[in-house]
Write a structure and sequence with these properties.
Elements: H1 2-36, E1 41-51, E2 56-67, E3 70-75, E4 78-82, E5 86-91, E6 96-101, H2 112-117, E7 123-133, E8 136-145, E9 152-160, E10 166-173, E11 178-188, E12 208-211
Parallel strand pairs: 6-12
Antiparallel strand pairs: 1-2, 1-11, 2-3, 3-4, 4-5, 5-6, 7-8, 8-9, 9-10, 10-11
Length: 213
């Protein structure tokens, strides 16, 4: 009888985990569909880096504009423009522009689709806690990297239950470093300039143009 109860308990846990995985998959699919439905997205965010062992606490703000397979990212004093083929990294402090060609087939290549839908491959996932944040219901999904080489222990992805927009992302490293990206504003279908994703060299007359490939 005791063994029967143990087996039944294990089966119930398995069914519960499977149900959570399906629920998590459904929620992530809704996030992906919502992102793909917009013509463009403009995000203002806060980025925090913490490691209590190393006594590191850093906060930064940034913003990113995304459209199709293009983006403009402003973060930590630098601007990164991706026009769909090349990436232009503008560093005012060094008066330098680094230009490189992006191979979209490269798993490490950063593209707009990967920024907001990175979770679609390479992770095991399950539903986590539901929190009330300033009147908004934020459902967390726990992502565990499937690669043993990945230096991240886990990722918690917070999703606004009503809008299906990503609210925040909490990443915990195997060495104790925790990074948190929180979305302060999420705007969609904004009027953008025709040259929004075009690098104009004449704007940087005294900069060193460094072509990396």
């Amino acid at each position: 009888m005791k063994k029967f109860i143990q087996i039944t308990f294990i089966l119930l846990i398995c069914f519960s985990v499977q149900a959570q995985d399906k629920q998590a998959k459904s929620l992530l699919d809704q996030v992906t569909a919502k992102v793909k439905s917009y013509d463009n997205i403009v995000i203002d965010f806060k980025y925090s880096l913490n490691n209590s062992k190393e006594n590191i606490n850093q906060d930064s703000k940034g913003n990113v504009t995304l459209k199709n397979n293009q983006y403009v990212l402003n973060f930590m004093g630098m601007t990164k423009i991706f026009d769909g083929r090349k990436t232009y990294t503008i560093v005012p402090e060094d008066e330098e522009v680094n230009i490189s060609t992006v191979n979209e087939k490269d798993d490490n290549a950063v593209t707009p689709s990967k920024m907001l839908t990175f979770f679609n491959s390479g992770y095991r996932y399950s539903m986590d806690i539901l929190q009330n944040v300033k009147g908004r219901k934020i459902q967390y999904v726990k992502l565990i990297p499937t690669s043993s080489k990945d230096q991240r222990k886990e990722i918690l992805l917070g999703i606004d239950v009503q809008t299906k927009h990503i609210y925040n992302l909490i990443e915990t490293g195997k060495k104790g470093t925790k990074t948190t990206l929180t979305v302060n504003s999420f705007k969609t279908n904004q009027p953008l300039s025709k040259n929004q994703f075009t690098f104009v060299a004449s704007k940087y007359p005294n900069y060193y143009i460094n072509k990396l490939d």
